[in-house]
Amino acid sequence: MPRLVSHPDEVKIVSRRFGMGATSIDRYLELGGYEPVKKCLAQGPEWIIEEIKASGLRGRGGAGFSTGMKWSFVPKQSAKPKYILVNGDESEPGTCKDHLIFLHDPHAVIEGTIIAGLAVGAKMGFIYLRGEYRYLLEIMERAVADAYERGFLGSKIFGSEAEFQIVTQTGAGAYEVGEESALMESLEGKRGIPRIKPPFPAVVGLYGGPTVINNAETIATVPHIIAMGAAAYAALGTPRNGGTRLFCISGHVERPGVYELPLGYNLKKMIYEVAGGIPDGHKLKAVVPGGSSTPVLLPEEIDIGMDFDQVGKAGSMLGSGGVVVIDDHTCMVEFALRIISFYAHESCGWCIPCREGTDWLKKSLTRFHAGFGSLSDIDNIQYLAENMLGRTFCPLGDAAAMPTIAFVKKFRKEFEDHLNGKPCPYAREGVPQLTVV
Amino acid sequence: MSPKSKKEKSKSAPVFSAELAARFDALVEKYPVKRSALIPMLLYAQDEAGYLSDAVVAEVARRIGITELEVRDVASYYSMLRFKPAGRYNIQVCTNISCMLRGAYEVSERFQEELGIGPQGVTPDGLFSLEEVECIGACCWAPAVQVNYDFHDEIRPDHVLGILSGYRGKIRPAEKDPAKEPAKGTPPHA
Amino acid sequence: MPEVTFTVDGKKLRAPAGTLLIDACRKAGIEIPAFCYYPGLSLQAACRMCVVRQEKVPKLQTACTTTVAEGQVFITESPEIAQARKATIQLLLGNHPLDCPVCDAGGECELQDMTFKYGAGESLYAEAKHHRDEQQWSPAVFYDRPRCILCYRCVRMCGEGMDVWALGVSGRGADSLIVPNQPNQLDCEQCGMCIDVCPVGALTSGSYRYKTRPWEMTHVSTVCTHCADGCTVTLGVRQTSDGSEIVRADNRDKNGINGDFLCAKGRFGFDFVESPDRLRQPLVRSNGRLEPASWEHAIRLAASKLKEIRDTRGGAAIGVIGSNRTTNEENYLLQKFARTVLHTNNIDHERSTDYAALARALAGQSGKTASLRDIASACAILLIGGNPTDEHPLLAWLLRTNVRLNRARLYIANAKPIKLTRQAKDALKIKSGDYNDLPASLDAGRSAFAKAIRAEGSLLVIFGEEMRGEAVEKLVAWGVKRGNVRFACLGDHSNSRGAADMGLLPDLLPGYVPVAAPGAFSEYPNLPATPGKSLPQMIEAAGKGELGALLVVGADPVATRKLDPTLFNSTFLVVQDLFLTETAALADVVFPAASLYEKSGTVTNTFGDLQLLRKGADRAGVKPDFEILVRLAGGIIDDIKTLVPFGQRGVTGDLGQSRGAQAGEADRHAIWLEANGLEPKLSPFDPLAILDEIERLVPGYPLDRINLFAGNDVHTKLSSPGYVPVAELAGSGLIAPAHDTLFTSGRLGRWSEALKQLAQHQAKELVETAAD
Ligand SMILES: Cc1cc2nc3c(=O)[nH]c(=O)nc-3n(C[C@H](O)[C@H](O)[C@H](O)COP(=O)(O)O)c2cc1C
Ligand code: SF4
Ligand code: FES
């Protein structure tokens, strides 16, 4: 069972029911669950969308797009059925928040999905979990079955005229399937290759019908917003960045864990106070602020509020909320290599710049880290990454290119040191050196 | 088809157990389109058979109503699906950044030493296989290891022996030769 | 869609709203590079070569997915764009083997061309390239993974274009690869379209690979000799010590009636031309055995014997059987030879469908026949009988394409389940005896099928050989009454239609003019006025010892009709053919004939589209049937100009016939001479010498010469010109279609090793799949 943490600065909204046995439907009801959806049934779709817009909720999946806006793009009339698709593919390295939601509060996801369905006029929702989350899928399946049994799902939910069905789905190991259009492909039983946009999912999505795709945390937040009111939720965060979010602090900190903090919470404070600082007397070397695809920040760049806009201004992104802390005993070339190996492994292979680019970056960095590099390799690595940026079919290519460019730019000296202190001057003790035979 | 697969089929034992077949029948009902059941089915079938044998691929293709080529195209895309048997207990050590920073490679090496196999290897008795895998969504509890579907959090190299003997202990004494047994997905937290 | 105006590289362009930018630009002559884009196939946006800059849009956009709208402004070439394309090529070249010097695609490779254009000469990588061994997927298709750039054209061509779906993409990321549907084997139609669309040398052809370089061949675009669709095929020809050999056949120029398409027969089945079994000199029977002889001797012998029989027993004692693969000029000449030189109407050919019935039924009508091009654009098509996928692959392709891209409505009425049913809006299974009653049931029927047909405005009706005689008449009457209907019927070989059109029929002169019609072809000397014997009747006569002589041109009745070898014991048998066929083996004189790829002239496909042939290969020792006939006639009559009206205006000169002119040379000359008021018909051996006469005398063959000589197809007309219909000829077995598969081609297919291998491969795959 993943360890739960807590800190006085936390504002527990989404994580309110964590550790309280809310997987049981009765317990969930005791804790106020399924009241918000009843309110939504009474108020109607326009009201729901306005509430969500007013809450300032922005997508927790990575891009931070306004959830209310996204919902409002779905056409009112549609010849094809509309769908809600909950993205629980959670695969961005550094991110493990949806994991806790599925584990501790599955009904919040169900309730949020129903509310999204009511808002856009969808009668069916899919909750897609990555294949590795089998035990969480079983928890979700149990919860869905319970909800059906109580009449919260089915043809007349909560005794109303409304219909809503939920189907849970498992992936089978593919990061790219977290991308919304690849997710739809996967759910249709195909290879996880993204689709050409436009048309966007809100117009032509799953099975050709208008589709809302939201991250599991986004969806699980929705009932809380309805319960506490949009204004109160918005007030927790910063302007245009409503509410709180689950920050996953990992890496070299004293107390790694998932903490729910208001948007705009200071990053430095998050590392040193909430997570207890860097262990073993080591010093901070770098921070990845929002999952592996977000450009790395230097210690002097982290005195910022963690919201979409401020992190953007600092040259990175809030992303999926995965804060990875790196101490000064870490080799940044190895770190960059590990990230690029991930993207090379996960590239769907559809488009040339990403498929070939990630592969070459991985090969070059492997050789470089092993001490067989040359000065021109450093420029080549940067050239390669810069030429992938903005040229790929889907954002995965950017996700690989952006951090790479930041590593080379911000840690160029460390790259150069590899040429002199062959093979790796930063290797931690006990780590065998990669060698090219 | 290779001659081998023909022989497999001519034995005409059902490819799916009754339980799995029932699961399939229930599953396809849930979606607007039958094919949506493909990926879950492949995973469940793999849990039962240990890997996606030619017979499993053919059976899934037949049940969904698509070609075997389509099934293979899809299956080969997903990294959890495999066309060769793994160990009965497939140990997956996450070595992605959060886990790497907290010693995942040391954990992986320890497994390698204890099992006497390399990463991506299978022990000769077929009991264990080892994989270094990408992020498994347990970054805050790093380093994380998954054995089949069980998560093991905050693993240090000195936990390795305990984990292995835990799984060894699950084998019923009657099963002396686990290599003859197909690998099965154990239920979570079993 | 309304037209919109937009700007590309400073130029104002107009196109219907929603047109893909890449198409709109290509139409306007602005070439945007692309690997994955292929017109008519689904969009991929995968190669990222077509990136362009659109005003007010932050990222570069892909021209293959951008649709044009009013007022948009694009830039398609700039340093930024060139850099993006260069970087993409650099990435590809990192893994590409760069074995261009030995690669089949060298010189015809889109990656090479792009590299040349955007200059990605320097290598950025020190690491090893991915390597995988080459695989042979079938006798026709080889796959070299390292050369593959994953444009997915082959996968889409196979699936969307061919409806075969034998190729897939397996793996992920840099491990992705194209895979066939069986373990390293392709179980498919072996059309080779995947090879054709591959922009690099990743898919190579079993018959061409490592043979030569593209620039060492002459590329001759002519018409395929196999089925009756008449695809343009480009022959890659190389000089040899005794002529020139065909090394490759493909669809290089894509400018024929077949557009992008070519089937296995067109692509791989050319090798019969190079078969060691080809006859290379005339054979004459002496002491019961066929012995090589000189052309002079053989011609003299055959001519004198034919003359003798004509003069002693009369023309009625001589029979002539023509071919479905000889040119119109040859066929016309053959019937004229039979009628005016041998004085007989005993002339026929292996009929594969009842063109005559259609012509008769359409008497007095005009504009009722459909060209093959109409198939590509018709809104509603009714296909009765036939099996285009096997027997008319281009027709099947056009039907599929029209359904896919234009949502044409295809209705199928057939006694057998055929593959095209997958594209059909509705299909009617009929009993094989019920074809006759189909029109009536469409009029009165209450089935959804009948209702849908009735509701269609215009309709294109294609029917197979299942409909003959009266059935055709009923169908046409139904269509004429209904209005807005055009017809096509399906014969089997490259000039089956031409054989019928040119009067290789005992009762009908060229253009379906009844021989008995008063004043028909009055300029023909000695034209017998009563109908002659049909093919089965000639055989019967031979059996009774009543046939003194039989001239067989490019047909093999002994094999197709399984005749007793002693049948012709009392018949003087002359055969013109490529091979020592079963019929030729019984002959008294055998002339080695040139194949369709070794001559010029015209052929008419089953839809009535006339096309020009260009001479590709050349072979010492053989002669075109045209020349053989003229030489034979020369030994029988005095004034050859009564048979071939050549050189009448007195200009003399050599268009190259005497030195075996290369493809197209004579044709180009002819156009030039014509344009200058000169006389192109200089030699009696020039098939064009008879073209004027065909145009003048054959109803339905007014030739649009400029179009024809420019290489375009010209639709001819079909309808018996108002003469009183004669009763159908007695005798069964008149129509004997070959019913070819994808890998057979009448009697000719036996001489193609490539087709035999493909048939064997597929037979093996079928057995193995069935065992599953
Ligand atoms: C390569 C890639 C991977 C992604 N992975 C995930 C993921 O695992 N989970 C997720 O919620 N969103 C992921 N996204 C973002 C989704 O595409 C989508 O924007 C998101 O699910 C929308 O939900 P939101 O608006 O609630 O954030 C990914 C995007 C890309 C480009
Ligand atoms: S950028 Fe291209 S190759 Fe990479 S994941 Fe997206 S579509 Fe696939
Ligand atoms: S042609 Fe547009 S991306 Fe390939």
For this entry, give a set of tags.
heterotrimer, B: 190 residues, alpha+beta, Arc Repressor Mutant, subunit A, Glutaredoxin, disordered N terminus, C: 772 residues, alpha/beta, Ubiquitin-like (UB roll), Rossmann fold, Dimethylsulfoxide Reductase, domain 2, 23 helices, binds flavin mononucleotide, binds iron/sulfur cluster, binds FE2/S2 (inorganic) cluster
Helical stretch tally of chain B? 8
Under CATH, the topology of the largest domain in chain B can be stated as: Glutaredoxin
Q: How many domains comprise the coordinates of chain A?
A: 3
Helix content of chain B: 40-55%
Distance between the termini of chain B: 38 Å
The pair of chains with the biggest contact is: A-B, 62 and 48 residues
List the helices and strands and how they pair.
The complex is a heterotrimer of chains A (437), B (190) and C (772).
Chain A: H1 25-30, H2 35-43, H3 45-55, H4 67-72, E1 83-88, H5 97-104, H6 106-120, E2 124-129, H7 134-149, E3 165-170, H8 180-187, E4 211-215, H9 216-228, H10 230-236, E5 244-251, E6 257-262, E7 265-266, H11 267-274, E8 284-288, E9 305-306, H12 308-313, E10 322-327, H13 332-346, H14 352-372, H15 375-388, H16 395-410, H17 412-420
Helix pairs in contact in A: 2-6, 2-9, 3-6, 3-10, 5-6, 6-9, 9-10, 13-14, 13-16, 14-15, 14-16, 15-16
Chain B: H1 3-10, H2 18-30, H3 38-49, H4 54-64, H5 68-75, E1 89-94, H6 97-101, H7 104-115, E2 128-133, E3 145-147, E4 150-152, H8 160-170
Chain C: E1 3-8, E2 11-16, H1 21-27, E3 51-54, E4 61-62, E5 73-75, H2 79-95, H3 110-118, E6 135-136, E7 141-143, H4 153-161, E8 167-170, E9 177-180, H5 193-197, E10 203-205, E11 218-223, E12 232-240, E13 243-250, H6 264-268, E14 283-286, E15 289-292, H7 295-313, E16 318-322, H8 328-341, E17 347-349, H9 355-361, H10 372-375, E18 380-384, H11 388-391, H12 393-406, E19 409-414, E20 426-429, H13 438-444, H14 448-455, E21 459-463, H15 470-482, E22 485-489, H16 496-501, E23 508-509, E24 513-514, H17 535-543, E25 549-553, H18 557-560, E26 572-577, E27 589-592, E28 601-604, E29 609-613, E30 618-619, H19 625-634, H20 665-675, H21 691-697, H22 705-709, E31 714-715, H23 753-771
Parallel strand pairs in C: 1-5, 16-17, 16-25, 18-19, 18-21, 19-20, 21-22, 25-26, 26-27
Antiparallel strand pairs in C: 1-2, 3-4, 3-5, 6-7, 7-10, 8-9, 11-12, 12-13, 13-30, 14-15, 14-27, 23-24, 28-29, 29-31
Helix pairs in contact in C: 2-3, 7-19, 8-19, 9-15, 13-14, 13-15
Bound molecules: flavin mononucleotide, iron/sulfur cluster and FE2/S2 (inorganic) cluster.
